[in-house]
Amino acid sequence: MKSIELAGPSAEQYRLLVDAITDYGIYMLTPDGLISSWNAGARRFKGYEEHEVLGRHFSIFYTEDDLATGLPDKALRVAASEGRFETQGWRLKKDGSRFWAHAIIDPIRGPDGKLLGFAKITRDMTEKHNAELELARSQDMFRRLVLGVTDYALYMISPEGIVTNWNAGAERIKGYAPEEIVGQHFERFYTAEDRAAGAPARALDVARQTGKFEKEGWRVRKDGTRFMAHVVIDAIRDPDGSLLGFAKITRDITERLQAQLELETTREHLLHAQKMEAIGQLTGGVAHDFNNLLMAVLSSLELLRKRLPADPQAMRLLDNARQGAERGAALTRSMLAFARRQEMAIQPVDVASLVRSMQDMLSSSVGTMIAVEIQFPANLPLVLSDPNQLAAAILNLAVNARDAMPGGGTIRITANGEGEFVHLSIADSGEGMDSDVLARAREPFFTTKGVGKGTGLGLSMVHGIAEQSGGRLELRSQPGEGTVAEIWLPVARKEASVVAAAPATVPAKPRQRQLKVLAVDDDYLVLMNTTSMLEDLGHEVVEATSGAEALSRLEEAGFDLIITDHAMPRMTGAQLAELVEEKWPGVPVLVATGYAELPDGAGRRLPKLSKPFSQGQLNDAIWEIVN
Is the pTM of this model over 0.70? Predict the structure, then answer.
């Protein structure tokens, strides 16, 4: 068998291999740095042909800044002494443009160790360098962006919960400078209650297990104040899934929370106002209808009393029925006061004189176990209100105070002028009210008294009277510390002050003759009783159950007087009066109503008779307007 000898590559083969490489510039240098060989790769990205660089010093590829520092000579010295020199930097092409090079210089020595020259390998890394620069620039921009954000606290937390960086938003929201908080545990932002409950550790556990934790809660600033925070914690992992730490984003949502609470409060107030308005309309309507019923009852009882024989037992029963009906009328006044529909004669009132005139009545109403103390400052200004309704409101508050002191106590009635209002205060030393009861005290039909001991309209009535006067009712109370009810009443202007009436001759009562009266009411019970009272007074009466029917009667005959209900369907009493004034201007119109006010226009000037009315009140009202 013939043996085969494998020969190694020749020097020529090595030369051909090196010359064929185009991605690397590979060339030889003499010990003095002169270029002694040049491959295709060096030619491709440096731009020189072989004959242009052979024999020239390799420093022609260096920038002026590198030449000024002696970098080429330093590179050869390091390579010769240490066996290798490696660096990256800008190098020059033939056309003067620059490229980013990664260069390695290795010394070449003979068998005896003598330096024969250097092998230099250069690679064009411009694209990679530019990509790295762009990445660094992007990272720097992102870092600056994060650090510059002020609306959000953005910072990193180590896997153990240690703060590792801190942006401007975190400093603004939480109050710590970076040097004060970096290296500290993030639990210091939590409240003491949350720390005791383990909330910080639980947040990191959730983020670690699920990748994200999100929640809203109270956090603590450096100065100890609290703010409502929306918090997001994201787990940060490297490509192999190892936990690097957490990114934490916190936003101060205190203002949003306050705005939401204010919106909810406003919505609750609106709903409450709508509810009270609906109850007021219902109450006013019920009171009006009830007034009509009481009108029929009271007028019938009054006429019966005049016609029945003088039987003491029958008279007692009639009086008892009348008192019950009058109590019903008082209830309707309370309901109308709550509904703001009670008729009120607003005028300047001397509160001090009014209350002092009531002292005996107040004392008898509250009983011997209750002391009533009245104290007013000198020169208390006059207020605008209805003196009768205000007196009823004061009496109502005094009775409420009495009921709050079953074992006895003291009621103090005082007043003081503050700006445009006088504050009339009725205070007791009783049981007081808790916050829940106090919040509902002015609601209609709400009462803490036993069944049958209160309608729940007392404070609503007082509130209604105060508002119709242009003021309001304020209540202050705490359990065991009594209650203060304060009626705010507007101060009367000086030009509206009470003027003492000069003695005058009382005009003679007009001669009471028989009148022809047109009585108009859509409620037949009221119409029948009004007719009966008028006929009992000696007048001729024609009835009509609507405004249209009344106009028809007026076309048929003449009348001395028209007495009409106001709240009638299709045509109100005020509207009827306007038509009468246009066509029969000499006929007076008396409007009977249970409401506080008539509409704007002619209705405002009409004489009114408040329901329920007695025969005496009816008679007086007639002769006040009939000549």
Answer: no
